[in-house]
Amino acid sequence: MRDFKFSVVMLLDNKILSVNEKIDSVIEQNLNFKKNIQLILVDLGSSDETYEVAEEYQLKYPENIVLIQHEKDLEGRGKYFNIGLDEARGEYILFFNYRGNLSKNAFTSARDYISKYHDEVDIFSIPVSYYDKKTDSYLPKIDYLNQDIIDVNENIDHSSIRLGASFIKRKSIGDLRFDEDLLDCENTLFLTEILLKKEKFALLRNAKIESNRRTNVDKEERDKEYVNNKFRLFFDRLMKYSNKRYIKYLFLIELNPISRIPYLGEVFETKEEIDEFWKKFMSILDLIDMDDLQVHDEIPRITRSFFVYLKNNAFNIELWPDSKRVFLKSNDYVINGLHHHMLRIDIVEMIGNTLNLSGSLSSNCYPENLSVKLTREFSDGKKDEFIGKFVEYPTTNRSIKRFLDYDWQFPYNFDFKIPLSDGEISKFNFALVYHDDETAIEMPNSLEFREFAGLSFIGNYLIKNDRTIFFRGKTFYIEPYSYSKMFELEAKSIVRMLRFRGSFLLQGLFYRILHFLLFPFWKNKKIWLFVDRDIFADDNAEHLFKYCIKQDDGINKYFILNKDSPDFERLNKDYDIVPFGSFKHKINYLFSEKIMISQVTRGILNPFTHENNTYYEGLSTYKFCFLQHGVTKDDISWWIKKYHKNLYLFVTVSDLERESMVNGHYNYEEDRIPVLGFPRYDNLSSDPKKEILFIPTWRRNLDNPNDIMNSDYLKNLNSFLNNEKLKNAISDMGYTLVFRPHPELWKFLELFNLEDVRLSEEPYQEMFKTASLMITDYSSVAFDFAYLKKPVIYYQDGEYHYGEGYYDYETMGFGKVTFDEDELVDIIIEYMKNDCVMEDEYKSRVDSFFKYNDRNNCKRTYEWLLKH
Predict the structure, then answer these.
(1) Is-contact 126 209, C-beta < 8 A?
(2) Alpha-carbon gap, residue 621 to 349, rounded angstroms
């Protein structure tokens, strides 16, 4: 077998959508693939067509590509890298495991560096940049030095190089192999043991890997095996080198995920095991100097400060009243200064004669020792003060952060409602207040706007109800609207845009200038927009729009829908439908008074979401009116929370539904959650045609084919749709099985066998009208069907993705609940035998749940919108 300059080991595991891209990134390098590169593909027992795709490449390049198929039987990847390593014939080996783009000059760059530094180093590393969606740019993971050779003793912050971005000299590997029992740091251990030989590596500064930033690190499971293996197989193995600073640096990186275990009692079974854990953990932490903690940029500051607290076993607060400073310390080490914390603003809005301001901060200080104060000063020098209302969001990422049984980071969320007077000229200043039994210190902290705050660092003003509010320095100003003041503020906004020079700059300038020119003529226009989804209609917004468009009230009303939607042609026959993302959509969005929408997704609500939305903050001051897509029966406060969505209206259908929100952790004002009924219910009708409607909901954790192909969710759906007993019974009794996929499921239809099933693309209302029986799992469409007093069956798998709410399927549901396919089929057959009639028990539940069944839902909703 011939030798190569490079061998690339690549693992394949149900990634059919990306396998071509990854393999092509190696084959299409500037360096001749056939002459220089061996590609070793190790298939981890993939169940999609990944192996077949790889096989086609092997047939095309039989001399270069080795394809190995292996059953996936371990969580860690060490075993599979070893399989690939044993096949490697290259002088240098790259274990390429990144989800991203490898620059085309990576191998030529490596070849040039190798010829220059072959004897000096064993590792040639490619810089890795991580894609940041918010800034639409690639950012370096670390600040790479402007030098070819990196000595890790002198530059410890560059010791954390990545296996998947490193060409390793095969001779330096020798008999070394990946540890197959390590679950997440086998790569680091392997690379570090090679790095220890020469303690330096070459940095290929003119090549790069562009990768997506990982966002789910803290959600990975950390059980007892994970922790014990890391102590035994990683830390213990490298302990003899712990006098080296760069090894300590790596120790901190690997301690970081362990420190994020919130409850040790959920990992270990006995007090003895927990005591042993602490003994091992602290023995490693005791090796780390304070100086090393301070310079470590690869672990979050919150974790570094926690390590300091553990090392010192001390937490103290130091007050400097004269300079308005509060330090949180561990002995002499400053964990953080409260006076340096940003008050991050979530909401800036004016509703009628009220200014609403909301925001938050996080610190290591207990919330009971904090408050946020707002001082208003009028033009005549008079002042008044307001203390923000403290609110909690325990189901969101603003919950208390717990590290190893310690509550360590505490969120502080605040809401202000400030009454405004006519013609008011005033200014507002925030202060973070620390107080204990003896002292109160007011700190003039700086402010920062979050993504959908209503203002931004570019658009720092908004105009509403003939008032202008703008932000400068640390101060909000309010004064009566004038076009000259608007000109001054807008000119400064445009200057900031030109300095920032972000993506979509010209478009942003165009719409801001156009908005400024139209404002005197359009500012009193009443514009209502109606949206269901960008690609689908036939939901509450469509039905409310059809009612509202008939009302003679002087309001301009537009329904927004993508031109490629199957519903566009249907609606456009009778109405002037505005294409989603069109000029007409965007300009009306900027001047809209209210947006009525059945979804809360920002990309559907805002046509500028993916076009640098920060340019337009301040221009749009609409009221976000959520009509709902389905009845809220679960706790979704983690998703539809006030600080992010800031809904003006949250339509409900039941007192039970409303109470769950008012008494939950959504934090909306009670008057924003009225019981009005769903607009689409007004048009529900029933004319059964012997159809059995199967309409399952989605699973949020299945967002691509690689996840869904091996899921029980897919297997269960396919099994039911092809149940022979059900097929025969349906045929014998003259019924039809109708399958309506969830909107997120349509793109995966090729994974289903639908030979004897009618796939429905009809409007929901038509499906509900003609169906005799509905089978769903957890979908809220069951409420629509039950509203018509038609029978429902819940076929569930116990793996629903929302938080448990007030609704209990067994005691409140509108039909029987089953977890077994055979039982489900028997229930369906029984219903068909009895002409699919809903039992009295379930009819009674329907009557007790819905507040209205009078077909006046659109009317109530319209009247609420007019009044508010």
Answers:
(1) yes
(2) 7
Q: Tell me the one-letter amino acid at 86.
A: D
Q: What is the pLDDT of residue 134?
A: 47
pLDDT in tens, 488-504: 999 999 999 999 888 89
Mean per-residue pLDDT, 381-390:
96
242-273 core/surface letters (b: 16 or more CB in 10 A; e: else) = eebbbbbbbbbbbbbbbbbbbebeebbeeeee
**Closest-CA residue to 245 (of 335, 153, 311):** 153
Give me the DSSP letters along 185-205. -HHHHHHHHHHHHHSEEEE-T
Q: Which residues pair with 67 in a beta bridge?
A: 41
> What pLDDT was estimated at residue 219?
43
CB 78 within 8 A of CB 86: no
Residues sharing a CB contact under 8 Å with residue 675, sequence separation 6 or more, in sequence order: 652, 653, 654, 655, 657, 658, 851, 852
Domains in the chain, please, with CATH? 4-215 (3.90.550.10), 224-299 (no CATH), 339-501 (2.60.40.10), 518-680 (3.40.50.11820), 682-849 (3.40.50.12580)
Rg for the chain (alpha carbons), in Å? 31
**Residue showing tokens 């000595």:** 151
**Rounded to two decimals, what is the model's pTM?**
0.85
- pLDDT score of 100 more than 70: no
Lowest-confidence region among 48-62, 129-143, 164-178, 199-213: 129-143
